[in-house]
UniProtKB/TrEMBL annotation:
Gene3D superfamilies reported for this sequence: 2.30.42.10, P-loop containing nucleotide triphosphate hydrolases, SH3 Domains
UniProt keyword terms in alphabetical order: Coiled coil, Cytoplasm, Repeat, SH3 domain
One GO cellular component term: adherens junction
Record gene name: MPP4
InterPro entries tied to this protein: GK/Ca_channel_bsu, Guanylate_kin-like_dom, Guanylate_kinase_CS, L27_dom, MAGUK, MPP4_SH3, P-loop_NTPase, PDZ
Protein name: MAGUK p55 subfamily member 4
Species of provenance: Nomascus leucogenys
UniProt domain PDZ: residue ranges: 127-208
Length: 578
């Protein structure tokens, strides 16, 4: 039996490969030697035995021989054969002929000689041939107000015309596909272009100084929306780029004071489009797009006041969940104090800058964590999610301890539930812009200070705070680099189901169940918040299933801290740490 013949075992496959690779001769003679050795053992055996045949077929040397045969066969098939027996001679001749043509400047087609008597005023023409494909040509034309000439108004970045490098803004069109454009309207020229198939030939008088785009690429966040179809002023509606609040745009050309060229970073492959410049959009916003100011939740009226210890009854104490603090937050916009400071403090007005310059920011492991801001309509679950997050990992996530002017109760501790301060101290914090949010409730002031947030961040923890949207501009500083997560209700049908046992907090009822009107109000408010403040939201989570929403929140926070994000450019340029 071959199995018993251990002494004649072939060297293992790996070694065989190695030795074959270093010296093919050695490997082959080794195999052949093995074959002869093995064959000698077969002489004395019964040639009719099935076992013999079995052993023979399973013997490693036979397989090795078959492999060698396959390799030889493959090599024979692969052998390269020249396409023609004279290939080498032919290629040599072609090279020499090309060399001679270039050396003798023997180019075709031969152009007729220039006439001797060209008047000085004769304009040089350029003939441009573009092959039309599915894409637009990427250029706009206009009629010169004085001369009536048809001019290339702008060449769109990334379009066919720009990529050809042959058409420039300011070039004068003379002919399109052999048809003179003299006296035609731009619309008639567009019609000729629309009718043409395949190649389009332009005869142009080139502009004397083609514009050079030396500006650096700028990225901006759209703080408003823009719909070219609804803008009667846009020079070419088809070339317009629509965008929504919060879209990140790459501004590729700012040569024109009124109309910039931009592309969305979510769609980088497409050619650019026209967008109003910062100056123009600001003007348009003032003229047409004054959106209705946001009206926060005002339906809660104080009648019966009963202190409720929201924040207790958990496994441990978490600051910033007190009922009075939460009710006060909702009313903060109504406070006259808030209004007076807010206006001098540069809070967001409905007509703010339409574009905000942004850059990519990647937090370094040694940097403090970014502040996490949760916001959403009252009752959507902002506090529930914040509480779950802190309970999930209290050594990693924490709330800031708020300030209040009310007196400390016997069971409270200064710096645990609140920082208890005098009205004067509280107001001086407001006037020195050290309060991120504040409000008045039942004659007392409540609020969260920058320092309270910094205390959490300096400890190397992630500070998670709940904020009303009208306070968003106050926290948007390079110091805190907030990442804003909007918590959104799902549709009414799902909310009715998921909020069956949920309790709403009001200042006259404790543990009141959600009514349909509450859910409807929540949905309306969420829509208004999104419309007015959507540009500030870095991430949106629909809070339907609490479990899913928590998981999404955790993952969003991780991304905010560990992955590059678009942030206002001012946060980075004024950041001494980076
Ligand atoms: N996904 C959810 N499924 C079921 N119940 C939820 C969900 N999210 C929140 N709740 C419940 O809804 C109620 C209101 O939530 P929460 O107190 O967090 O609201 P809120 O957004 O903080 O509003 P407010 O600031 O007015 O208190 C609570 O009883 C909470 O447990």
């Amino acid at each position: 039996m071959i199995q018993s013949d251990k002494g004649a075992d072939p060297p293992d496959k790996k070694d065989m490969k190695l030795s074959t690779a270093t010296n093919p001769q050695n490997g082959l003679s080794q195999i052949l030697r093995l074959v002869l050795q093995e064959l000698s053992l077969f002489y004395s055996r019964d040639v009719n035995g099935v076992c013999l045949l079995y052993d023979l077929l399973h013997s490693p040397w036979l397989r090795a021989l078959l492999k060698i045969y396959d390799c030889l066969q493959e090599f024979k098939e692969k052998k390269l054969v020249p396409a023609t027996p004279h290939a080498q001679v032919l290629s040599c001749e072609a090279l020499l002929s090309a060399h001679d043509t270039i050396a003798q400047k023997d180019f075709e087609p031969l152009l007729p000689p220039l006439p001797d008597n060209i008047p000085e005023s004769e304009e040089a023409m350029r003939i441009v041939c573009l092959v039309k494909n599915q894409q637009p040509l990427g250029a706009t034309i206009k009629r010169h107000e004085m001369t009536g000439d048809i001019l290339v108004a702008r060449v769109i970045h990334g379009g066919l015309a720009e990529r050809s490098g042959l058409l420039y803004a300011g070039d004068k069109l003379v002919e399109v596909n052999g048809v003179s454009v003299e006296g035609l309207d731009p619309e008639q020229v567009i019609h000729i272009l629309g009718m043409s198939r395949g190649t389009i030939m332009f005869k142009v008088v080139p502009v004397s100084d083609p514009p050079v785009n030396s500006q650096k690429m700028v990225y901006v966040r759209a703080m408003t929306e823009y719909w070219p179809q609804e803008d009667p002023d846009i020079p070419c509606m088809d070339a317009g780029l629509p965008f929504q609040k919060g879209d990140i745009l790459q501004i590729v050309d700012q040569n024109d004071a009124l109309w910039w060229q931009a592309r969305k970073i979510s769609d980088p492959a497409t050619c650019a489009g026209l967008v109003p410049s910062n100056h123009l959009l600001k003007r348009k916003q003032r003229e047409f797009w004054w959106s209705q100011p946001y009206q926060p939740h005002t339906c809660l009226k104080s009648t019966l006041y009963k202190e409720e210890f929201v924040g207790y009854g958990q496994k441990f104490f978490i600051a910033g969940f007190r009922r009075s603090m939460r009710l006060c937050r909702r009313k903060s916009h109504l406070s006259p104090l808030h209004a007076s400071v807010c206006c001098t403090g540069g809070c967001y007005s409905a007509v703010g800058a339409p574009y905000e310059e942004v850059v990519r920011y990647q937090r370094r492991p040694s940097d403090k964590y970014r502040l996490i801001v949760l916001m959403g309509p009252s009752g959507v679950g902002v506090n529930e999610l914040r509480r779950q997050l802190i309970e999930f990992n209290p050594s990693h996530f924490q709330s800031a301890v708020p300030h209040t002017t009310r007196t400390k109760k016997s069971y409270e501790m200064n710096g645990r539930e609140y920082h208890y301060v005098s009205k004067e101290t509280f107001e001086s914090l407001i006037y020195s812009h050290r309060m991120l949010e504040y409000g008045e409730y039942k004659g007392h002031l409540y609020g969260t200070s920058v320092d309270a947030v910094q205390t959490v961040l300096v400890e190397g923890k992630i500070c998670v705070m709940d904020l009303e949207p009208q306070d968003i501009q106050v926290v948007r500083t390079h110091e805190l680099k907030p990442y804003v997560i909007f918590i959104k209700p799902s549709n009414m049908r799902c909310m009715k189901q998921s909020r069956k046992n949920a309790k709403i907090i009001t200042d006259y009822y404790v543990d009141m169940k959600f009514k349909d009107e509450d859910l409807q109000e929540m949905e309306n408010l969420a829509q208004r918040m999104e419309t007015q403040f959507g540009q500030f939201f870095d991430h949106v989570i629909v809070n339907d299933s609490l479990h899913d929403a928590c998981a999404q929140l955790l993952s969003a926070i991780q991304k905010a801290q560990e992955e590059p994000q678009w942030v206002p450019a001012t946060w980075i340029s004024s950041d001494t740490e980076t």
